[in-house]
Write a structure and sequence with these properties.
- The protein has three helices and seven strands.
- Strands 1, 2, 3, 4, 5, 6 and 7 form a seven-stranded mixed sheet that branches.
- The chain is about 25% helix and about 40% strand.
Amino acid sequence: MEHVDIINALIKLIDNKTGLLVVPSGTTGNKPDYPYVSYTITSPYLAVHRGVEQEGVFSEQWECVVSLLFHVDNDALEALSLSKTMAQHFKTEPARQFLNDRGLVWVSNDGFGNRDTFLTVSMERRHGFDVRLRTHESIRHTEEEDLETINQIEIN
């Protein structure tokens, strides 16, 4: 599972529920029209355990945390409502099934709260939360060049 696949699944899920544009945080260029959602991958790789290796295949479950911010122009209650709606949606069966179909499992929402920022002439209202997702990955590595072998030992 690549991070682009995780982000694409989140974008589609948010768009299906809210119809809002989802963009990466901290990018340059023109800001989208309000309201919109921005994301940041805050923890890209959290190993759930050491993984298992059998017959040349390494398998593990890992998690990542994505921070979602709901941006609106000067309406704190709208930002709160959009954020809460999406946070609750992650807990529903349709959302969990949507993520499962894409190889993801919703683990939790954390850090739900106000994340307002003061712009030069106005207040941008932002409310958000961090979503933690889990996935499974298997990596095959049975190629000869992957393994260092000792062919001969000399003892003096």
